[in-house]
Input
Amino acid sequence: MTEQINSLEEYHKVYAESTQNPKAFWERQAKTFTWKKPWDETLNWEFETPKIEWFKGGQLNITENCLDRHAKASPDKIAILWEPNDPSAKAKKITYKQLLDEVSKCANGLKANGIKKGDVVVFYMPMVPELAIGVLACARIGAIHSVVFAGFSAQALADRVNDASAKMIICSDYNKRGAKNIPVKKVVDDALHLGCPSVETVIVHQNTAENCDFDISHDIWWHEAVNDQSTDCPAETMNSEDILFILYTSGSTGKPKGVVHTCGGYMVYTCYSFKNVFQYQEGDVYWCTADIGWITGHSYIIYGPLLSGATTMMFEGVPTYPNPGRFWEICEKHKVNQFYTAPTAIRALMACGNEWPEKYDLSSIKVMGSVGEPINEEAWHWYDQKIGKGKAPIVDTWWQTETGGILITPLPGITDTKPTYASYPMPGVQPVLLDAQGKLVEGNNTEGLLCIKYPWPSMIRSTYGDHQRCKNVYFAPFKGMYFTGDGARRDEAGRIRVIGRVDDVINVSGHRMGTAEVENAINEHKNVIESAVVGYPHPIKGEGIYAYIIADGHQGEDTAFAESVREVVKREIGPIAKPDQIVVVTGLPKTRSGKIMRRILRKIAAGEGDKLGDVSTLLNPEIVEEVKRKASEV
Ligand code: WT7
Output
């Protein structure tokens, strides 16, 4: 069994060992899994190319570790506990044995439809058990899964399908969200219409009784592809460094990149971090409210918990349906022991009033997690007092799509917690702060750029189809380091607080968005000449999207025009990227070399237009007054 730290003393001991002798430490964790062939070399790495190989030469299948070993040891234990959108519908309990059978059937169905090792399968689905089953079925046969969040538009879906040359898309007919059924298959049809030449087959899971278009030349129903298949599907032999999945995420350039994770290291790290960060104990019910379309859902709804033999809950719906007590009602109903959510959800529910959590018995909750963005003090205290009743430690977990698992976090009941601080590195994780010149910032009570100086097993291996980009973004900025893109502060006791992105990436409700990506979308509008997007503090979303636009034939406040811009962004990316604020201007502040001065735009968006300092060196200093005036009018 993967080790679990039980005391502060042990944390210090394990941390020291894991950094003094990382290979021995990770080798010991890796030995607790089922391997088809042991590895020859624990770690081979250099951050120049970069080339990172964990458990090289080892062979395994991650699903044997998620499913077979638990199905054998405790077949009737609940693996997935599924809570439907409709509160009056019955929850589904899927045991480890049943999950193994369902995954095997699906895997055989994929094979029967031409999917083999190395093929890419895109998922575009709501939070239904079939999504987890499909993802694991890919892993079973060595196909690479690429889950696309079902809120992305047809264009965004097509971009991701094409970047990975996916051979198949698996979707649902509709997504049940609150009182609405949102068409999902229709978006897939639209994406195919835009052009996805690599796609041969679309598997459609029937989630509602509503009709959807169905083209028998390439569509096939999930139940027809899967239901009659055999429950026996041998697990494909995978090399430790074979690709397990791709997950697209935004960066500071316009095009999202496919972050590549591989089998062996990802397995070892997600299991180790899950067991330790959530202090999961046998019999506990664990609930992470994330969507599987993001890395949190991959690592801490599917892989980490199942590798640990845990009961992991999946929730189909939204936190406010049928009322803002839904999360707390579910916690009471299923006696949830570990609850993991995002600051944006905490703030939104906090705004609905204390009467909602007060209606329910939340005494089963032992550990509460936060992820995705910095958690502000007010939300931290509300979470601590109103949900945890001061008795359930909060783990503010810092990590990224690229890190694969949680890297900086308190350990509940073991280390201390401090509001807004992710605090301490996990065993094997060596964070450092650098100044802009790349010089190490030493000592406490300091700030700098957050980098990691030594590999950990679940780190990014490449960006799909473009390894150079992986180097440029993460490894070239500072020699010998993985650069996170975040700025951080270290307090007097060495705890780390992650402040936020230092690049042109904004974090909207815990979703990462490239400002260039949103600008590209806005620029698709026929009347837009130029645009500049920045983030600004938003009470619920953390950061909101603020767009400055130069437009043909539009000036000042123009609600119809602003709405038409939002529609274009929704079409190009999806509703999550719609600008909250739109200001139409006649020019943008630029440097003499023609670069947009985002610093000025950020200040104005934050309502700090009176704190701009000297702007006389700009190419067009006169524009600043106009931008300020128009911003104050929206
Ligand atoms: C970015 C990564 C990790 C899964 C969800 C988001 C920010 C994440 C924290 C935290 C402060 C955080 C960072 C990071 N972030 N967790 N606990 N405190 N900031 O994954 O989309 O890859 O975004 O989210 O800025 O770089 P992601």
